[in-house]
Amino acid sequence: MSFFNVFDISASAMKAQSVRLNTTASNLANADSISSSIDQTYRARKPVFEAELNKASQAQLESAQVKVAGIVESDAPLRKEYYPEHPMANEEGYIFKPNVNVIEEMADMMSASRSYQANVQVAEAAKQMLNSTLNLGKS
Amino acid sequence: MAITFDKALGVHQHTVGVRARRSEVIASNIANADTPNYKARDIDFNKAFAAAKSKQGGGMQITNERHISGGNSQFAELGFQVPDQPDTGDGNTVDVQKEKAEFMQNGLEYQAGIGFLSSKFSGLRNAIKGGQ
C-alpha cells in the first residue's frame, strides 16, 4: 500500500527538518557565548541531508526518504575582538565570538519550519486519501 | 450472467492505483526539497495507466521460487522532471510550490476515482437488492 510509504517519507522529512530546527536553536542560543581561545569557541552547526533510496528492496525504488547524513561545523572564521578589559580576554587582550550569522540562522529557521509544515500537509492529505479508500463501499 | 468486478468497475480501479503510486513519488519530492543533489521525479500517467490496465507488473515475473524479486517498480513510467529554473547551486531540482499543487491535484483526482468506484459499488448493490 503506497500510502503507508507516504507516511514514512513525510515522517523522515519532518525528522530531518526538526534536526535542522534544533541546530538552528543551538546556534542562536550560543551566538553570544564568548571564549578566550579559538579551540573553545562555539562554531555554527549545520545538518547535511541526503536522499535515502531504499536499494535493498527494489519495490521501494520510487520513493526516497530523507536521511540526516551528519552535522558539520561551519568553518567560517570566528569573530576575534580586541577587548582587553573583558574577564575572558586572553594574554593579548582578544576574545573570540562564535561564527554564527544570526540573520542566516533566522532565514534557515523559517525555511525549516515551512518545509516541516509542507510535509505535515502531505501526511494529512495522504490520511484523507487512505480514509476515503477505507470507507469505499460503505453507505 | 456472472458479474465480474473487473468489468463492473471499469477503468477506475486502475487509475486509483496509479494515483496512489504517484502520490508517493510526489511526497518523496516534497520531502527531499532541501536535500542537495536530489532530482525531482514523476510518473508518466499514460504509461503507468496502460501498464496497470494490461496487468504488466513492470518488474520481472517470478517463475521459480528461488528467483530474486524484480520488484513492482515500473521504470518506464518513472522519470526525472526537466527543471524549469536554473540550478540554484545545490543540484536540487524540486520546485516545492509546483509539487504541492501537483500533490493536491493528484489527491483530488484520487478522490474522484474513489467516488466513481463508490458509485459503481452502490449501483451493484442496488442491482443485487432489486431496488429495494
Radius of gyration of chain A (CA) equals 22 Å
Spatial separation of the terminal alpha carbons of chain B: 21 Å
Q: Approximately how much beta-strand content do the residues of chain B carry? A: under 5%
User: Which residue ranges of chain B are poorly predicted, with pLDDT under 50 across at least 5 consecutive positions?
Assistant: none
- Biggest beta-sheet profile of chain B: 2 strands, antiparallel
SSE topology string of chain B: HHEHEH
Please give the oligomerization state of what you see. Answer: heterodimer
The helix/strand series of chain A, from N terminus to C terminus, equals HEEEEH
Strand content of chain A: 15-25%
Strand-pairing-aware structural class of chain B: mainly alpha
The total of beta strands of chain A comes to 4
**Chains forming the largest contact:** A-B, 42 and 38 residues
Number of helices of chain A: 2
Strand order of the largest sheet of chain B: 1-2
Please tell me about this protein's structure.
With 139 residues, chain A is an alpha+beta fold. Chain A is 44% helix and 19% strand. Chain A is built from 2 helices and 4 strands. In chain A, the strands form 2 sheets. In chain A, strands 1-2 form a two-stranded antiparallel ribbon. A two-stranded antiparallel ribbon of chain A has the order 3-4. In chain A, helix 1 packs antiparallel against helix 2 (102-134). The radius of gyration of chain A is 22 Å and the shape is elongated. Residues 56-60 of chain A have low confidence and may be disordered. By secondary structure, chain B is mainly alpha-helical. Helices cover 52% and strands 5% of the residues of chain B. Chain B is built from 4 helices and 2 strands, in the order ααβαβα. Chain B is elongated. The model of chain B has no long low-confidence stretch (mean pLDDT 82).
